[in-house]
Structure formats: C-alpha cells, structure tokens
Structure to design on (1368 residues):
C-alpha cells in the first residue's frame, strides 16, 4: 500500500479554494481522500480503478462499475483535465505565484486576457480610473474585447499602443500602487 | 467540368471543398496565410500558393492576390467558400474578368441581394412576405396611426436610410409613438443626413428558418427543404437542424415556394439560402435575407437528402443542368449540426487560443466531422474561432439529438477551451428537445451558459487531477514516441495491481 | 426496450454497438481482457467488467464468465457482435437460461444454419439454388459419370463427412475422375473413418454477393439488398460495396426473394446475411451459407438505406415489430467499405504489431469511420488485426470509389504497418473500377500486392526522411506537451525563411 | 545558406542500398541531393518547401506548387515516414548493427518475425537444416506463421519451446557457425 498526498486548486470552470488530497493504492484500486475546496472543512472520498495511456488518455471505473473516459494535458502550469466531455482546469497549489494571495483578483497590472491586437488605449499615464472602467479596446478573432480596470487607481504606465499585437498575459497598463493592493 | 479549382478560403470549409474536388477528380489549389502554413486545408489540397501576411485583409480578403494565385496556378475556377469574399460582387467580377469561373451566382444578382432594401424589393416583387412596414412617414401622420392600429404594439421605428441600429427604436405603447418617431428621426438626421423614418412590425422571439435553393443556368430552380437555425449566441448560429420541428408539410411547401420564387426573381444561379423569420405562434414567415453562397450548415441538408451540395455547385457552375426535380427531394430521417468553437461558453463566449494538445473527435454510425484543425495545431488570433462542425444523423429527431449528445461527450479536445459543454447542455435541455424554442433560447435559459457539474463529477475530476499530477511527478507522462533505439514500452499503465473479479 | 445491454465483444464492433445503445438511451456494459484495459470499446461504454486473462479463450470466448458479468452488472440483454461467440448456440442458450435476451436468432435456427449440411437442406427446402451435386457415389458409378456428363470439368470431389479440405480434390479431366475419387475416398476414410464422397460442380471465379435480411418475431421478413464482397485475401473480405456492379434489378429481386425464403424456412429472427456465389457469366447464383449475426460490412447497407442495423437488432430482440416493408427499401447512391488491417500487404499479409504512434483518420462529407483503436494504443498479438473500417458514400459508384481513394491517401497511420496502400491500389485499379471482378481479383492482379512507388515519390520520401532525421538531431522533435510552466512554443516550424510569392 | 549531409537506408517497402544526401537551405527552400540507392552512382535532386509540426506532421511543396502531406515517427531505430498515404521506413545508415554486412540476409539466428506464441518446434539440436526449411510454427493474431531457416546449417541451440510467448526479434533457434557467415 502506497500513499501520496498534495494540494491542488481548481481554476475552471469554477475557481475554488485549494483542496488537499491523499491517495492510497491498494487492491488494484486507488482511494482518494479530498479535503476542503467546495466548503472549507468538507471531506469526501472516492475509490477508482484507473487505466491510463501515455498519450494522455485514460478510463476510470468507480466501485459500482460505472466507467468514465478522461484525458489530460499540461498547458504551462495548468493541468487541463477532460472528463466525459467537460473541461476542468487545475493547478498545483504550490505552483501559484508567490506573493499573491490565493483567490485575490486585484493586481497592479491590467493584462491582456488573450492574444490579439490593441485597437485603442482609452487612458493616459496619470489618469485616474475607476474599477470596471473601460481602459483598452482589443480585437481578437474578429471580436472586440473590452478591457476594464480591476480596481480604482491612477495609471502609472501605458505599456502598449494602438495597432500593437499582444500575447495572452502581456501587461497593457500598470496602475500606481495603492495601499497593500487589496481591493 | 473544371480541371483545377482554387479554393479562396481556409479552415473546415476549404478542407470540405477540397474533399469534393478530389472526389470529382478536380485538382484543388489551396491558398494560405503565414499562420496557416501546413494547416489541414493546405495538406488536403494537391497544390498550394502562399499568401504573404497574417491578417485576413492581407490574405484571404486580398482580391488581387487571390486572382493572381489562381492565374499562376492554372486554375480555371475559384470557389469562395463562405465568409471572406464569398458575397463580394467585386471578387466575383474580378474572377470573371480574369477568365475564370466564379462558383456562385452572378455579380449582379449577388450585388442586388447584398443590399437590404433592394433584396426586400425583390422579395416583394416575387410575392414573398416581408415584415409589414409603413412607408416613410412623419410623426402624427394618419398613415403611422393606421399602421399602429393595424399591427398593434410593440412596433419598430426605423430610419429609411438607416443601418447599425441608429435611428431605430422599439415602441412599446401607443402614447410613445409620436415621441419615439421624433427621436428616431432626429437621430437619423444626425447620422445619415436623412430624417425619414418608417414603421415596421416587431416580430417578437421569432424562429430562424431558412430554405436551401439550387438553381442552374438553364432556368431550373428547386428548393432542398429547410434548416432550423434558432439556437444562436450573439446573433450567430451555433446549432442547426433539419427538418425544423416548427414546420408542417403545408408551411414547408409555402416557404419553399416563396424561396424558389425569390431566387427566380433575382435571376439566381447556383446554391443559395433564403432566410426567414418565422412567427411560431401565427405560422407567418417573413423574408430576412438571401445568402448568395454555400451556408455553414449545409451538411444537415446533405445528410437527410443524400447529396453533395459542393458537387452540385461545381456542376451548375460548369454549365451542367440541375437534373434533380422538386419531386426528387425526399428527406430521410433527421440531422443536427453543432459548431465547435474555441471559445469559453461560461465567460461570455470569449475566444480561446492556444495549441490543440488533444483533438480526438468521436466517430461512428450517423456521424460526420468537418474539421479545419488537427492535433498539435495552433489556434491563432487571426481568424474565426470555429474549429469544426459535427453532424449527427438518425432516423428520428429524438435519436439524432441523443447521438449528437453522446458524440459531444466523447469528443476529446484539450489545449483550448471549447463550447462543447454548452452544446451538450443544449442537446440535453428539455425545451430544446421539445422543439419549442426560438432565437431567444440562450437568453431565456441562462443556466445552460453556466457550468453544471455534479458534486460527484467534481470529486472525480479532483481525484483524477491529483492522480495526473502525481503521474507527472513520477515521470510516467514521458513521451512515448521514442527515438532511443529501444522498442516502445507498453503504453498502457495500470494503477495498482490488476483487479480480479 | 432493454435498459442495459452487455456487449460481449471488443474492437470496432463493440464501439459501434455502444454508440447505438447510448443513442437509444440504453446503458452499454463493456467487458475487457487485460490487453484491452482502457481500449476504446471500454471508454465508449458507461459500465465495464474486467475479464481476467489475455487470450480470447480466457476472455471473449468464455461463456460462463460473460454470463456472470452480464448478471453482475444487471444487464437485461447481451449483444454478441460478430466473431467470438456470435454464432455459438450454446452461448445464446446460456444467455436465455440466465434470463437475459440474446440479440440474435434463436439457438435452434443458429445451430441449424451453422451446420453446412443442414443449412444446405434448408436452402433446398426453401427452393434456393445450391451448388449442383451428385449424391454419395463410388468411382465408376453411373451417377458419377452422368453428373460429369451434365456439368463438365473441372469438378469437385468432396468427402461427405468432410471439412478442412481433407478428402477434397479438384478434378480437371474426365480421365482423372475415377482415380481422384479413389484418392479422395481413401483420404476421407483415413481422416473421418467414412469414405463416402460426392461430386459437386466447381464454380470457377465466382463473385461473392450476399443479401442482408431482417426478420421480426412476428413473422415479417424482408431483405435490405445486397453487398458485393468479392475482393478477398486468404478468403477474407477486405473491400465491400453496395449496390453490386454485377446485379441487374431482376437478379437482385430473385436473390432477395431467395434470401427471404431461406430465412423464413429457417425460422430466422433478427438480422442475418445469406451469402451466395454468383457466376457472373451465367447469372446463376448458389447458396453458400447464412451468417446468423451482424456482418462486418453492414455499414454499406446503412449508408445507402439510411437506417441503423443495430437499432433494428435491438428493436426486434425486444419484441417490437419490424415496421419496414419491402417497398420501403430504396437504396440511394453507392457505398464502399475498406477494412483497415495491421498487416503487411507486401509480405503475404503478415500481421503487424506495435504502438499506434499516429492515427489520424480522414473525415468529411460522405465518410464514416468505425474504429476500435486510438492514437497511442498498443496493437497486440492476441486478437484479429482489423483496426478500423472506413466507409465512403457518394451519389454514384465512380464517386464513392474515388472518395474512398482520397480518404485512404489522407489517412495517417504510423507505428504499425497497415494495408492502406493496398486498399488504395485496388480503388485505383482499372478492373476494380470497371466492376468486372471476382473473388480471384488479387490472384489475377498480383501487381497490387507489390509496392508501386514512382521514382519521383521515392526521391521525395528519401529527402523527407533525411530532413526528419536531421530534425531529430537538432532537437526540433521535442515533445510539445510542455509541463515546464512555460507557454508552448508555436508548433509550426518553417524550413528556412518564409517564401515570398 | 546552411548545409547538412548524412547517409540513410530504405527498409520498406523496398530494401535498398544506403543513399547519401546533402541538404542546402536557401531562399526559404531546401534542396536535397540524393546519391546512390536505386542504382549505385545515381544522382537526383529535389527542392522542397517544408512546413512541419511538432506533433509529427507536415506538408511539403515542390517547385511546381504540388503539395504533399507527410508524417513521421521513430519506431525504435526506424524512421517511419508516411507520405500521401504510403509508408516508407528508413534507418540512419550509421545506426545499423555493426559487424553485419549491409543487405546480407544471413544470420546465425532464426528470429521471431513478430510477437506471438510458438506452436511447434520442428527441429532439434544437432539437426541439419536446409535453407528455407520450415523449422518453427508460430501463431499470431489468429494466423499461423511458418518460420524457415535463412541458410543451410546445423541447429546449435533451440531457444524456445511449444506454447511459449515470444516477442518480435526474439531468437528461436541458433545455427552453428559455418564459414564466414556468407550465404
């Protein structure tokens, strides 16, 4: 009997609190103890037979014999798990960026949510912006994207200009620090 | 018949056209932008021409370059697919001027149908119902009052010269009519320098039902039945089916006759689609527009009729007569199509990009996949986020919806976020299954655009995520495509020992 | 209708049955041997039971274990697929004894049809032509001489108790008749303790044409037209098509009537196939055997008729009446199926094993894939080497053959050797295209079992091999499924700079 | 302009002599010089644009614009190349087993041509066998395989017994050395 444990965090479709797991392998099956997550302090357990495949596909069976098809791939630090037709995204809890509170939405930066082209920057350095104010317009895949400020503050730096191509996660604007970054 | 056809498009529709061209023994020539180098629409062709640049404007919308590519490659015809330049009369004319056939209608009928006012005139001339409207009138006019009297409220006020929603207002109550007409007129004057407004009946929650038409160059025009396209997000269809659950045989015949009359009036040749708004309560239908090209959702028609629309497009464009008679058109069973988009159904349909790390479509009886991507491909920002179309056919509507639902649940796609879970939720939805839905379906049922994951599934997903994460840690996720001179190891791994029964 | 059905099979047919079960809202239960853990027939089911062991005998042929698995999982019926236990009356009886429905004919009619002599008697009783034969006779008999007189040479001498080719001889000349009968009789005596022999007409180079039959439990039997299965290697079909190029409407009707009469005579219920040898010169046909199960090549019938054979099998087994009338059976277009085997077509069809490193089937209009494997899967030694079936439909035979040929040329399979190049060569072959072929096709055309690669293609292959080998050297073939926390790099690599037009 | 060169050998569907190649990259295209192979001393050249993909697929275009789909994978030391529907197998010339003449079919050993089960061993140690004589019967994928001796000689050792499972390439029999191993 071998035991593993660790901590994961759901990112999609629900963003949840981290959960802890413990895995016990015995009798050809794996028993998972899942703690936390949906409601802090909750505890669930599930026992699965898992047959997997190096190309990233597998099948698992619960104790009732019900059989589920799954597949997985790493997208950067994200573990994308496909299960019976639905996507679930996870991260290892320890791989989240340090210095940033788990679940916090605030940031000093306004980032590009996806790759695309900048159509228009609606603010200038030194401007005061309100939370949810539209600051940049982008275009991606024939769609216009409205980028809003995640908090109120003063624009410290404009990092892009109209017409520029940006990658996902690229900084568009930097807001001046304000207190401890809480919202 | 043509010997070589340039396909001025990309993605699934270019692949699909390549397939029929090769089936007919015609050489397909692909064009491709820089991000599309090596994409499936290139490797399913037999010849290809690079278009420098990445944006649609530089490549698939560049008339001069496309005509040059066709000339250079020795093509004798151009198929425009849908989107891009498919309804651009200047492109059709440029092809003809260069001595090549354009696979579609004449530039003249394309231009006429592309203009909203001219196409409405054509419909009226053909005796096809359009949305009732009162001619240009002033606030307080007797004509306005009479129109309001006849059709009731709500009503639309629209700018005669209008477009883009400017000068347009929904009037809910009689006492608002004059005021709203004033406001609309001022808006129209400001926007277009033309303050004329008119009243139009407001069709609440219509169904979107369209009729497929085929017309040859020898005056023979038929319709191929309808497609129901009412499930839409942001006014874009995502699910289509045929037959429509809303049509009686009598209504089908009337709509089909109307579509044929309109195509004849427009002098239409080749495949086209007449779109109607259908008021499911009254059974009245109104001409919306005619799409002068192959439609995204043409495969559902192919599935129930057993024919190849692109084959007919090519035959007609090369001058062959349409040998199908209206009586030959006998649909068998039911077909449904789902458009698979790289977009997040739970975050306002925002497009998703990335590398398709897994792309393992379901297959089997009654299923067809028209795909523009392969595993490992980059989904870029440059073009429409539609990855593929899945089509399910079965002997009844109930079975084809369930076949589709099963196929969606088996369709492995990883690396980009797709709308597959939303499509599946619609297939399972009681209202959709009942057939009693309209273009407001997603609006009235916001629950389908929210994730619905049972606690049991969530626990299983968390367990599997933990497991997969551990697999990586112990190096079991190593590349199986070995090059180290050793035989591959058995790729099946068992968790723990083998179970005994 | 059943709630839960155990599928006592593996590979593509188990996957295909799962698909229809789920479409009909019935829970499929898979069984699997150790090498098949995680195979597609398991992950397309909703429930599964492990069968310990690897060999077919221990697993898919183990009646007791299969019945136990069905009982344990709560299944109310068992579908046997084809092969394995599908024509084993003891299995059908064991299912019934355990209180479960067997999806197929009764054990009694299965047993009668499984016996060559009894099935020939049934055919004769039904008035169905069988291969002419002289009853058991001695060398020098008047009966033997008269039979030889009537039918000419060559003739077959067969052991009355025979089987497996023992006591069987082809007699080419009159002067060899008595001697060959002596030899055959001695062989038969030695082999079976029964020296009786008889004469049978030798049908040289027949076509193999079969009729699909459906019969319900209420006495209604129809046929669903024919399948032409004459392209065979080692007496195993590899390509099937419908309609047969050899059948006139009149011949089709006569063969169909014969098949229905035979099924009725046998008290047959459910889907079955009556196989005939057709003498293409005379138009005479002879009963060969009846397959009391679903046939590998059933999808071509589904493609032209627009129905689901497994759906009908389930309806009939659950007692529903067959609502199709003979007049409803109206084929549309033409369909062809190719069986994709892991075998080397250039080395006497020796099976090939290994890991499927690439498996990227073609898809699109008119194509259907029934596959039992996925990329990354191990193709093991334990079972039949058929990986998948590809089915192409089009409006004419010419187009469906070409559609198939294109699809085969696009079907990427790496890691095991497949017969795809052979299938493609047949699709391109002038004699096959003409429709004038028989079961000797591969024998008469040995060139299709030899590689035919043009110098140009060979040079290109060598260049690409050199290139791919260099790619590996410089590390460009690195795994793109990254786990290093960095975004994947753009997976498209360009050789050298970007070309300008 | 960069140049590579090396030596490859075709293994399937034709087994050919090794060929040498030289690759010159220029103007966005690759020009391949192929020497030897079909007929020793032959020389051909081909210029290709190649677009490839890390998942092992690509498309190439010759100077006339004709476009070809290809894919590749390494199966042990073998490079499996799929081109427009046909399989071609290659090896790097240097990766062939040393001490064994290129193209020679003779060997001291009789090897299993594929995985399967041994049905019957028809010879015993010390037996004299002739070239092409059936020495072992195997079963694989429901097929009987007839294994023949690749040369005449004396059976030095029988390495398997009836009923045994064998992997591809596993030694079934060993023949006693005879001269220099030539045929």
């Amino acid at each position: 009997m071998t035991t593993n444990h660790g901590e994961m965090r759901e990112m999609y479709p629900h963003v949840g609190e981290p959960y802890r797991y413990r895995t016990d392998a015995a009798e050809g099956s794996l028993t998972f103890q899942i703690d936390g997550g949906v409601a802090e302090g909750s505890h669930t357990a599930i026992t699965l037979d898992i047959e997997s495949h190096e190309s990233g596909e597998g099948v698992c069976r619960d104790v009732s014999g019900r059989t589920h098809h799954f597949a997985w791939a790493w997208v950067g630090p994200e573990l994308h798990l496909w299960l019976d037709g639905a996507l679930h995204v996870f991260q290892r809890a320890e791989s989240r960026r340090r210095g940033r509170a788990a679940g916090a939405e605030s940031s000093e930066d306004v980032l590009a949510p996806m790759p695309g082209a900048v159509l228009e920057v609606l603010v200038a350095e030194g401007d005061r912006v309100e939370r949810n104010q539209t600051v940049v317009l982008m275009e991606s895949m024939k769609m216009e994207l409205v980028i809003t400020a995640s908090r109120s503050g003063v624009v410290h730096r404009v990092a892009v200009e109209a017409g520029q191509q940006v990658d996902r996660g690229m900084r568009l604007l930097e807001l001046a620090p304000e207190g401890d970054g809480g919202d | 018949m043509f010997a070589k056809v340039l396909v001025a498009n990309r993605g699934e529709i270019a692949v699909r056209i390549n397939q029929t061209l090769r089936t007919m023994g015609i050489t397909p020539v692909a064009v491709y932008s820089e991000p599309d180098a090596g994409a499936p629409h290139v490797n399913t062709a037999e010849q290809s021409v690079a278009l420098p640049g990445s944006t649609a404007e530089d490549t698939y919308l560049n008339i001069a370059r496309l005509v040059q590519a066709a000339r250079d490659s020795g093509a004798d015809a151009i198929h425009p697919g849908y989107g891009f330049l498919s309804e651009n009369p200047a492109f059709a004319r440029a092809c003809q001027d260069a001595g090549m056939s354009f696979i579609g209608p004449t530039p003249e009928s394309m231009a006429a149908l592309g203009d909203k006012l001219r196409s409405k005139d054509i419909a009226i001339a053909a005796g096809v119902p359009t949305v009732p409207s009162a001619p240009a009138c002033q606030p307080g006019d007797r004509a306005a009052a009479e129109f309001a009297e006849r059709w009731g409220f709500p009503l639309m006020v629209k700018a005669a010269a209008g477009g883009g929603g400017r000068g347009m207002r929904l009037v809910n109550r009689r006492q608002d009519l004059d005021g709203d007409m004033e406001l609309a007129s001022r808006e129209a004057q400001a926007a277009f320098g033309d303050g004329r407004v008119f009243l139009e009946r407001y069709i609440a929650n219509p169904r979107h039902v369209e009729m497929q038409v085929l017309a040859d160059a020898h005056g023979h025009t038929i319709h191929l039945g309808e497609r129901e396209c009412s499930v839409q997000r942001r006014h874009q269809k995502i699910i289509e089916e045929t037959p429509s659950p809303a049509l009686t045989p009598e209504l089908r015949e009337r709509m089909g006759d109307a579509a044929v009359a309109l195509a004849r009036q427009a002098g239409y040749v080749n495949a086209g689609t007449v779109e109607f708004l259908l008021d499911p309560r009254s059974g009245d239908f109104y001409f919306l527009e005619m799409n002068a090209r192959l439609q995204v959702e043409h495969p559902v028609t192919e599935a129930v009729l057993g024919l190849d629309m692109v084959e007919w497009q090519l035959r007609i464009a090369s001058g062959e007569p349409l040998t199908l008679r209206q009586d030959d058109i006998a649909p068998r069973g039911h077909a449904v199509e789902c458009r698979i988009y790289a977009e997040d159904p739970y975050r306002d349909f925002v497009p998703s990009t990335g590398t398709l790390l897994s792309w393992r479509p379901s297959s089997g009886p009654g299923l067809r996949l028209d795909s523009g991507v392969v595993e490992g491909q980059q989904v870029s920002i440059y073009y429409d986020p539609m990855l593929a179309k899945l089509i399910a056919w079965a002997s009844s509507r109930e079975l084809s919806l369930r076949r589709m639902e099963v196929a969606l649940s088996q369709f492995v796609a990883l690396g980009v976020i797709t709308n597959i879970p939303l499509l599946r939720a619609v297939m399972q939805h009681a209202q959709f299954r009942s057939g009693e839905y309209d273009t407001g379906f997603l609006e009235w049922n916001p629950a389908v655009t929210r994730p619905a994951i049972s606690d049991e599934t969530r626990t299983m997903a968390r367990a599997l995520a933990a497991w997969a994460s551990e697999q990586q840690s112990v190096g079991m996720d190593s590349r199986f495509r070995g090059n180290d001179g050793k035989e591959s190891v058995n790729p099946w791994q068992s968790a723990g020992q083998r179970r005994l029964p």
